[in-house]
Amino acid sequence: MTANSNTVPKLGFGCMRFPLTDPKDVTAIDIDQVKEMVGLFMDAGGTYFDTAFVYHDGHSEVALREALVERYPRDSFTIATKCLAWALPDAEAAKACLDTSLERLGTDYVDYYLLHNVGGERTKKFDDFGLWEWAQEMKAAGRIRNVGFSMHDGAETLDQLLDEHPEVDFIQLQVNYLDWESPVVQSRRNMEVARKHGKPVVIMEPARGGRLADLPAAVAAPLLEARPDLSQASWAYRFCYNQPGVLTVLSGMSTPDQVRQNVAEWREHGDAFSPKEQKALDAACKVLASVPTVPCTNCRYCAKDCPQQIAIPEIMNLLNLEVQTENTEFAKQQYSWQAAPGRASDCIQCGACEAMCPQSIDIIEQLEKAAEHFE
Fold first, then answer.
1. CA 330, 331, 334: angle at the middle one, nearest 5?
2. Ordered mean pLDDT values, 10 residues apiece, the chain (375 residues)
3. From CA 155, how far away is CA 181, in angstroms rounded?
4. Which of 90, 174, 201, 241 is deepest in the core (most CB within 10 A)?
5. What whole-number distance in Å separates Cα of residue 233 and Cα of residue 252?
6. Four-point Cα dihedral 330, 23, 213, 13, nearest 10
7. Model pTM?
């Protein structure tokens, strides 16, 4: 089997946010609810389930075995799972992830296997551990059907990775209309690179972690006026469904009602936007663009010589996300991992960043704001 954007249903089931019986314990998955959710998704014609070695501290894969693998014919669904080599000590531990995942899932192969979150310094671990070559060996052995990678990085990095690894079958990218023209996330540019290399794309974060399902009133107004019968989330998913070369669009669903709504809107309203609808989405995006933001273009001159290795462009982007979504808590959650290794409060105010910034951004002051808001 080869990844084919024309045969996989456009709505995929993300298994990172399963319902819990104890909200303080990520391993306490409510398996009865998960079984109901999987049943609703399968009955609607869905087939693609996306999990990972680390989701729910490994219990996502176990729950998927019980709710899916043990209840449906193996050829009626596809499973994607992932390896985070950059978080592991050596090649042996990284390669052992596949064995563990297969055991947890109760299957002898996975349909889609991802080298997870490559890009930046993280890529070196995958290179050093020989995982690109190893994954192809596992594919030849029939333990993996399609090899891919996921990435939170820019178009130049993606282009380089695909030049170096043309053998991959697919890629997974963060794409949504909020990040479409973001100089940091670069959703549009990344999609263009994927098309250039002929690689189908699995889309993650189509609703930007749920933020595009809970829009500020001024942003939501044109969407509501155009289609009062549709949820805000459906606009985000449809934007992604209809991008060229999309394999599937992941939705991290947590309740049966979310599954019912998402599959209903996918089946009934998953077509391309009408001229009236496109005009409404353009109007909503215009409102988002009108919000005063830090004019960072992600040139990265500021970060190059930062003695504290602060992720300045990423932090500027999160300050912008905060004001665009009117949700500090969401931006703070993103900051917990996107700001690594250097945090805003690590700034020693040496001024090297401001001296290099073509946009003359008051970076030191913005970092102080970020530390106050997010730390």
1. 95
2. 71 95 92 98 97 94 98 97 92 97 98 93 93 98 97 93 97 94 92 98 91 90 95 95 96 95 92 95 91 85 89 92 90 88 93 89 96 95
3. 12
4. 201
5. 12
6. 120
7. 0.85
